[in-house]
Amino acid sequence: MEASNVKGKKSLQFGDHGKTSEFFRSVHCNVLSKCNIDDLDTSKGAAVKVVISYPSGEVSVMNKIDDESQSIIRNIALKNWATVANACLRHELLAPEFKDAFAREVGKECKAYTKSESCLKESSPDQLAVFSNRTVCKEVEIHCPLLYSALCQASNMCSLNSEVSKERAVNAIAVAVSALIRLRNPTMSAAAYRISTVLFHSGVSYKDFTRLNHLGICMSHDMMVALQQKMGENFDYKAILWRKLIEANKCTKLLVDEIREKQVPQREDDMDLVLEVDISETTIKTYEWYSPDNYAQTVKQLERPRQSLNERSIANEVLDETVRRLGNEKLPFFK
């Protein structure tokens, strides 16, 4: 590089601007002399010479560089980043530093992952019921991209074509991550709980549970028993829900029938009169089938027919339509 005062070009500047022009000229000449490439041996291919100029004016030259390092420097200058990365991993002195740096970055990723709201921290029966290995892999891909890339290559998932093979790879990655990350944060045990549940219902003995727990694959036998007891508290949840839906329909119908019986007089002739009924809570409170929940449900059921019949208030026609709809409602069957 040459220093020039030609308009449009700037000369090289080194160090403090307060230094004399004689100093800059001497430094500039020194740099130019060091940049001489006549001593480079290009008979065996491209040659690399590195000149480093410091703010103090000192100039350092390195032209005795091994072939691997020359290749890295040359490709950095040419911005061939993939080639640089591959060459660094094969470099005798640089490869160990790369591995240590990679390990530190993976450690940072995993540490941050343990502080996130991961599905691996779920432990309630409802959460464990919807636990998915694919969700775990997606979380690892987002929070730990370096670790995920290494596991994908280790499992050969990137080269698999069939969905069955990919599913097996996903399961393997999820189990591996669960066992490893649980060592950092014991609360991230959702996968271990799932595996423990399968083992528990398969009749695995206490000793086998202990062995597998030491391998980090499942929970301890005592923790598994506690989970099963917790899951057993809601074993009849579906039956209770089914019963609640049936009772809501029947109780609402009985209260509407009682309102019609007490407020709509029975006539012997065939005249159909439109009569308004009082469904205020003060009035309905004295009825046999009244309860706060049943009253709220009944008012809700009466509102729909009222709107469909374009009635401004609740009349006997609305009561009749509500009873008809409740009778035709398809109630669920318990399975």
Q: Largest sheet, described in full? A: 2 strands, antiparallel
Rg calc: 40 Å
Helix content: 55-70%
Overall number of domains: 3
Question: Quick check: average pLDDT?
Answer: 80
Quaternary state reads single chain
Give the overall form: elongated
**Given the helix and strand composition, which structural class is it?**
mainly alpha
Percentage of residues in strands: under 5%
Neighbour order of strands in the largest sheet: 1-2
**What is the string of helix and strand elements?**
HEEHHHHHHHHHHHHHH
How many helical stretches?
Answer: 15
Note poorly predicted spans.
Answer: 1-12
Termini gap:
85 Å
Number of strands: 2
Please sum up the structure shown:
The chain has helices at residues 21-34, 67-77, 81-90, 94-114, 125-129, 133-143, 145-155, 163-184, 190-201, 206-214, 221-232, 237-263, 281-284, 292-308, 316-328, and strands at residues 50-53, 59-62. With 335 residues, it is mostly helical. A hairpin with a 5-residue loop joins β1 and β2.
